[in-house]
Specification:
The chain has 52 residues and is mainly beta. The chain is built from no helices and three strands. The protein has one domain. It has a three-stranded antiparallel β-sheet, with no helix packed on it. The mean pLDDT is 77.
């Protein structure tokens, strides 16, 4: 029964994170939730990658 969540082929719920670095060195972290909601924020100073 479809409920609108994103799932992998193995039927596992998934979300995504994209770490974007702009030409001036500023970074933004784009979070996409299982429901498809998008949030853009500045990454933490200690965060070197989007994967945790």
């Amino acid at each position: 029964m479809p409920v609108g969540y994103t799932r992998t082929l193995a039927d596992v719920m998934q979300s995504a994170q994209l770490l974007l670095t702009l030409g001036n060195g500023n970074q933004r972290l784009v979070d996409i939730s299982q429901l498809g909601r998008v949030r853009v924020r500045r990454p933490q100073a200690t965060q070197t990658t989007a994967c945790q």
